[in-house]
Amino acid sequence: MLFALKYGVDLEIIQRSSIMGKRTGQLTLPGEENFFEETKELVERLGADAIRDSDGTHLDPKSKTLPVKIYSTYFVARGHNEFAKKHPEECQQFYLMSKPLTAYSSHLEIPYMEGFFPKQVSPDFDHDPKKWWELIDRSTGEVVEPSLWSLKTEKKEEGNHYLLILENAIPFHRYTLSFLAYALWDPTELYNHITNQWGDKPGDIPFDIRKPHSKAFAKSCLSQWLAEHPDTDVVRFTTFFYHFTLLFNHEEKEKYVDWFGYGNTVSTDALEAFEKEYGYALRPEDLVDEGYFNSTFRIPTKAYLDYMDFIQRFVAKEAKELVELCHKEGREAMMFLGDNWIGTEPYGKYFSSIGLDSVVGSVGGGATLRLISDIPGVRYTEGRFLPYFFPDSFSPGMHPEKEAIENWISARRAIFRSPIDRIGYGGYLSLAYKFPAFLDSMEKVAEEFREIHQAVKGQKAYNKCKVAILNAWGKIRSWQAYMVAHALYYQQIYSYFGILEALSGMAVEVEFLSFTDLLENGIPKDIDVILNAGDAGTSWSGGEIWQNEKLCTMLRQFVYEGGGFIGVGEPCATQYQGSFFQLSDVLGVEKELGFSLSTDKYFKTEKTAHFLLEDFSKEELSFGESKKNIYATEKDTEILEYSDGSVHLSAHAFGKGRGIYMAGLPYSPKNTRLLLRALLYSCGKENEYALYQATNPNCEVHAYPEKGLLAVLNNSQVPQDTGYYDGKGRLQEIHLEAGEMQWHRAEKL
Question: A single Pfam family, by name (predicted)?
């Protein structure tokens, strides 16, 4: 393949192989039984150097004859039903909450299992409900004395109904029951069972390795498994002990999902151990959390943060012992960042102590790729690309190659900033084999990935500034903000998640800080811009923490002395001392809640030209779900977009720095450009903009001055013409085909 290296008036034709040479490897394919010859064909064609099994598949016995590493999926706490059935008291558990019910008289019956899938969860009567359960009057928040309620099971035609009976309810108050339940079916295996219509296949029962029999079994079982699988090179733990919170309803549909949820880590043993160590007991409410189950959108309480830390230390200690068993047998230990990953927080304090060789995770775009590639403390990282080889994507009439290329282009820009070491796929290879166009797309992705990796791995990409994302979670949720289920779209969050997606491939350095980090340690000296984004009252915006005068004073001083502050949505928001945006003096805008309608607002005039708007017209701006009732508080607030009676984009000088407000930022090439301009403008680095920069928002430049290389990417699936600025600010004009990347010379600065 040829490409043009265009610099000044000279045109040089260079073989791409002069950059990377011929490469194979760094690719993992799924295999399955009775599909060996086709697997061998694809291994050779795609240059794969590893094959793996998947949930529901097994490798063909002939696989060991291939010149590849063998990854074997290993489930620590599921897939051993014979053991689990012998020890039903050691099943994993949930704290669940019944549907809120209104009492219409003093007699109230709560069918607390209503709406749950009885094949997945079952109430725990082995441990005294009067001690471990909690009936709450949700009209007052008070706990109802256990002696006032009773339990019974009624036999009805449609099945058993578990009932709580309260005889002295307060009429027209609402009540919920928080109750312990056993987990009868691993959630991922249940999801796969439903998706693939596995019929009568028995579900995997999850057991809790905190319990004595399960703990001993998990270690002895792994030792035996290693002895029985001498051909396994890499043990792919999927993952360790506790699944993220995923509950199904009575119609076998998802009822509640939180990819970060610790709901499945609960047991009476854990609660007793926690109380012994921390000196206080957790209530069911600390875990049920009014029915929100401590979603990452909730501002975490001290009790919940303590519990997370408690679980993380336990998981790290136990996982380390399993990893050491693998190493003793000469095997690598890989962790899948999904399924049972709770407690193995890759950006947490204890992750590196586990001693894992690698982490593999699903790539849904740039932000999820950075979530994997930035993980510290492992020798290598691997991204599992989409689509997964399941019937929902690989059925007659579908075009999975379109999703594959879209997924690759969105992730590729992030790879240039922080490369993963390997890529791979999962599912039924026999399904993918029926789609020749998809196989062609796999070949293209593998070739480009190796090319990028060869050219830039170990090289530091040029960064224009350093931005800190400020929220209640900080580092532990690096690249994980605004997610509910991994990389899935939700209407309420795309306007915020777009910030991370934009940053994932942007020429800036990114750090994640918590409010506690700032209050305890101050603002790091190398931070140029601080960004706070989210709805008021969420963990991302911060809530009442903004009533802390030390925090606000620190940030005001930071901006006054030349730093930048960008607020998106409802930043720094809490009603306090006459303000809703506590840094309204920095931002130059405020939100009208109705309290100040009697105060006139005169500043509504838009600026006709501005640094932030040079790449596109105001009509091209998109704020997603946006916000209403935002108004300028100062005459010198630069209003850049005003419509429907509200400011949606503005900038405001505050000392030597600037505050910038955006009503939302869904991901798009033009919004990525807008955010980059906002970052540079806020901290006074506008001159950085014309260094290693494409003029066309659909294209991006990634520069590696120390190596003398830069890449220009077409991030769209149609041809693009663009200019790009080199390191001296000189403009070059090039043409890129759909999705194309070109390598060019980059002078050292």
Answer: LBP_C
